[in-house]
Structure formats: C-alpha cells, structure tokens
Amino acid sequence: MTGREDRKENDLFFTCSLIDYIARKTKNKRADVVTMLGKDAVAKIYDLADVYHSDNIDRVSDDFIASCGITQGTFDSVANTRYAVPSHWDIGKVFKRLVLGIAKEKHLTIIDALFAAYQSFVSEKIEDFNSSFYYDAPQNILNAFLYGTIE
Predict the structure, then answer these.
(1) Helices 7-26 & 88-106, crossing angle to 10 degrees?
(2) pTM of the prediction?
(3) How far is CA 42 from CA 36, 54, 81, in A?
(4) Reduced DSSP (H G I as helix, E B as strand, rest coil) percent helix, strand, coil of the chain, to 5
(5) Phi, psi of 25 (to 5 degrees)
(6) pLDDT by residue (tens digit) across 44-57?
C-alpha cells in the first residue's frame, strides 16, 4: 500500500468515476454504460487505471465511448437535479465502496461485484441526485443492495 489508500481500491475508484463521467457525457444510465463497455473494457480500465488516471479524462472517456460504441442516450441526471450536483468523483467513491462491500460479502471478483452493483436497483437510487441516498452511509447503501430494500 502506497499512500492513504490501497492501490487497487484507488484503481476501482477511478474506474467507477470514469463510468460516471461517461454516463453524464453520453446521457446514459450508469447500468447502460457498464453494459455497453462490457466486462473486457471495464477490466482493462481497472487494470490500467493508474495510467488512465494520469491522462485527460475527456480523452480517455472519448476513447472508450468510440471503441465500445457507446451511443447518446436521453437520461440526464445532472439537468434534472434541483440541488448541488455531486461530481463524478463523488459518485465514483460511492460506487467504489459499494463494489468493495459486495465483493467481500458475496465473495465475488471486483469486476463481477462492479457489474452486480451497477445492474442493481441501488444504482438507479444512487444516480437520483434529488434524493439523499447517494450520500447515505456506505453500510446503508450496501445493506440496501444485500437485502433488496431501502430501510
């Protein structure tokens, strides 16, 4: 471990933040972006996150949008927000914590846990910036995923 955080956890943080960035840029739901990227591209982002993190996020996102054929959608979580909009880094951190929790609780690889997180009902709750769910305690977000309900 170098720095305040485990290196692979930081790579996951970047991966989740890039997914959010692409979703905002292409006006797609995060689950749709993950599906369009596919497991190979997500694994590549995760494996090379330290390299991609050093590059311009616009260029990196454009490369993956083009290579994975991510099309423009109509979902705009930012335009529909009535309050302060969390950054893609903020949402990346929320998803990073959720993915790590799922991987630990369900004994999944990081990539499988990432797909489980983004393809769950919790993902839609997180991307609703008009609710307070995305800044709820990480354990509460994980529990919502694990138990299939928001308490």
Answers:
(1) 130
(2) 0.94
(3) 10, 17, 27
(4) 65, 0, 35
(5) -65, -35
(6) 999 999 999 999 99
- Taking only the tens place, the pLDDT of each residue in 116-137 is 999 999 999 999 998 889 989 9
Side chain identity at residue 132, one-letter code:
S
Q: What would the two tokens of residue 83 be?
A: 């309050």
Q: Is the separation of the CB atoms in 124 and 148 below 8 Å?
A: no
Decide: 109 and 63 in contact? Cβ < 8 Å. no
pLDDT tens-digit map of 62-99: 999 999 999 999 999 888 888 889 999 999 999 999 99
Structural tokens at position 112 = 């499988």
Q: What is the pLDDT of residue 3?
A: 61
Position 100, amino acid: L
**Residue 23 phi, psi (nearest 5):** -60, -45
In Å, how far are 19, 46, 70, 121 from 66, measured between CA atoms? 14, 18, 7, 27
